[in-house]
Design goal:
Distance between the termini: 50 Å
Mean pLDDT: 92
Low-confidence stretches: 1-10
Strand content: 15-25%
CATH class of the domain at 2-17 and 89-248: Alpha Beta
Structural class: alpha/beta
Strand order of the largest sheet: 1-2-3-4-5-6-7-8
CATH architecture of the domain at 2-17 and 89-248: Alpha-Beta Barrel
Number of helices: 11
Radius of gyration: 17 Å
């Protein structure tokens, strides 16, 4: 019973903050850092820019990351920011108790049991020994015009953009299954972001927070996602290509 109570507490702190922010009509922004693409030596300077921006969260993770890299990066990030650091893991080896929370991702857009429940079973033994806040998340890959690493590794196909009914019903099914967050993902390096109409239709179906990421490369696209109904937007690739983007969304501009 004590373990259950502890796990319930861990699952509520950051999540409640997200809910509170949404209730105040505040929009949230996560900066996604891939351990395979961020050198430790760059962290202090990069996070200094993040701290000056409108970012509210730091996500850490990638589809293919060498063992140990995630923990090293998280430790370095935590030295330079008070923003919550949340794991966005592509595999069990990326789980580290140095972060604040973990998106417990179930790939509900696909039908590969390993990514629906199998990897999660593997992760339990690690999670039981951490104080990570566990955030059950329905993860949905949406067609973006090119094959993503998530598609290749998970051996699942994204939902076609024109299949809006399937997208909205899948998101709602995730909520009814007990997910606390729904994440619409165009994928790393997507050729274009998820259309505003898809975001709007999904948000209309949900009573839980909606995360949107992939393909966002401009302030206009960022705010289109917010205005369409995204509660939390994730940006990643654009920061790998252009450090100045984070400056363009400075809270002091």
């Amino acid at each position: 019973m004590a373990l259950l109570a502890l796990m319930l507490f861990q699952m509520n702190k950051l999540y409640q903050h997200i809910l509170d922010s949404i209730s105040r009509s505040e929009k949230l922004l996560a900066v996604l850092i891939d351990p395979d693409k961020m050198q430790v030596e760059r962290v202090s300077g990069f996070i200094a820019m993040v701290n000056q921006s409108i970012a509210t969260h730091v996500f850490v993770g990638g589809s293919e990351v060498q063992e140990g890299l995630t923990e090293t990066l998280v430790v370095e990030i935590k030295k330079h920011t008070k923003l919550p650091v949340i794991l966005f893991p592509g595999d069990v080896i990326q789980v580290t108790d140095k972060a604040d929370a973990i998106l417990f991702l179930s790939l509900i857009s696909g039908r590969n049991s390993e990514y629906l429940i199998g990897k999660h079973v593997e992760a339990v033994s690690k999670l039981k020994t951490t104080n990570l806040e566990v955030l059950p998340t329905g993860y949905m890959l949406i067609e973006n015009g090119r094959q993503t690493s998530v598609e290749r590794i998970s051996q699942t196909k994204p939902i076609k953009r024109k299949s809006v009914k399937t997208i909205t019903h899948t998101a709602k099914a995730g909520e009814l299954l007990g997910m606390k967050l729904i994440y619409l993902e165009a994928g790393s390096g997507a050729t274009h972001p998820i259309e505003a109409e898809i975001i709007h239709q999904v948000k209309q179906e949900l009573r839980i927070p909606l995360i949107v990421g992939g393909g966002i490369r401009s302030k206009k696209e960022l705010y289109l996602a917010f205005n369409a109904g995204a509660d939390l937007v994730v940006i990643g690739t654009v920061l790998e290509e252009n450090d100045d983007f984070i400056v363009s969304i400075s809270k002091y501009r």
